[in-house]
Design brief:
The structure holds two protein chains of two kinds. By secondary structure, chain A is α+β, with helices and mostly antiparallel strands. Helix content of chain A is 36%, strand content 23%. Chain A contains four helices and seven strands. In chain A, 30% of the residues are buried. The chains are: A alpha+beta, B alpha/beta.
Amino acid sequence: MKKIIILLSAFLLTLSLAGCGGEQGISPNGTQEEALEKADPTVALVYYLPTEDAEYIRPVTAEVKKSMHTPKQALTEMISADKKQRYPFLPANLSVKDVSVKDGVALVDFSPELNRLSGSSTVEMLFVNMTVATLTEFPNIRSVRFLMNGDPIQTLSGHFDLTADFKRNPEMIKQ
Amino acid sequence: MKYIYRILFLITAFTWILAGVSHAADNAEMTSFRWTSRNDGDPPFVRIVVDLTASVKAEASMEDSGQRLSLLLKNTQKGRDLYDEYKMDPRGAGIATVSSSGNDTILNIALSQKQSIKDIKIFPLKPDTSADKTHRLVIDIPIPGAKKSYWKSVEDMSPPPSKTYDVTKKAKEILNGKVICIDPGHGGTDTGAIAQLNDKDIYEKDINMSIAIPLRDMLASAGAKVIMTRSADTDVYGPWSDGSKELQARCDVANKARADAFISIHIDAFSNPDIDGTTAYYAPKSKQDALLAKELHDSLMQSMAFPDRGVRANDFYVNVHTDMPSVLMELGYMSNPHRLQMLTSKWAPKSIAHALFNGFISYFENIR
């Protein structure tokens, strides 16, 4: 019984904390917001999602603080936007560990959840092209190499050759 | 000292909270015990599923020897239909016993090899009324070092016998002597996409094979020399090999045979069940690659009612690394329930194979 009571109170605590957060959001401090805006203006960040028919990918523009306008953030937005789609297809808890850029090549390191990407040509094609298109929105990135947990990947589910560097494929993009 | 691993089933706790019920579920009953060996994990594992009439609290513990796992299901009666002992897969867990102890039920599982409790997955499943399933507790016991191609019995592994088809004179004239490599996608430890039909797992690798076999026989009946990357439910390079070795092995089969054309047969899948259609993929390494993809695709579109997802250039491994014109055909979405019904029917694989066969005739006629 004790454990149930502890869990119950933990549950209530979460509820009340959530309540506090909501109230803060309703009454923002105007002057502070303005100061923040000056130091860190809002800019557009572009990432890609599948089209409804899952044949192509389409750009989505999000507003982010300039300090958050990074390749890693763009992919993080892409992954969380997929979750909000009617039919998300990326594995739960997938995250981007790191994106490093050298000589125009972005090395994107995904978390091991990438292993759980469901296996099909459509899934591989959308995931690869969404990632590459999102990253090549940054002018210093011309091609993309995929890593998982710091190691190179050979294939996802047996379709693409992932040892190669990927370039942006404009034919996959529907505006 | 026993290493005790306590599992608090959150759904249990939350169900109580949400329902505002203060008493513990003291009338749960364990009504069934099932087990199966699964090869769709690395390593393969033994899965035990017990049905429960209500959510329960459970504690798992492992003896120091690492060879005996105990599960205490609190306030749970042992159902009348349950046996005292279950014989299971000796590679992972040989025997499980079910016994009552006061108000609780105890599951003792004898493990064939020393294991750490951390490697054993224990999780609850909520009732699924649409599938008529009650509360369940699942125990997954890995089989370390299992022979990973342990999938089907030897009898099942032999390829279906070849069959002779009546083909036209024209087909014979055009296809005679042509070397064609057929690659039924995935196989063995790689299931490809998985879908459910009537509560049964359907593997892409099996549908691929069901189309590849009649295609092989039709082409052979017309005098073509057909090379298969696999003729049974096996890996081509080896079990659980890394992806590119497996895919390269398939290309090697075609390259060594100096095939005139290569076809990899696949079934697609996506999270949205409405999506369906066929796509022909090729690597733009020669004009013939695109032509082969177009001819096979056009022939399918002519004779089958598949939504058209087009002929697309891509960098799929088997298309890039084969020396001859090659195509990867995605023949519908098994995530689409109607398509899955069709693909698993008796007639469809043969009809699809026939459309592909006609596509090969058009292709070879075109490049003459």
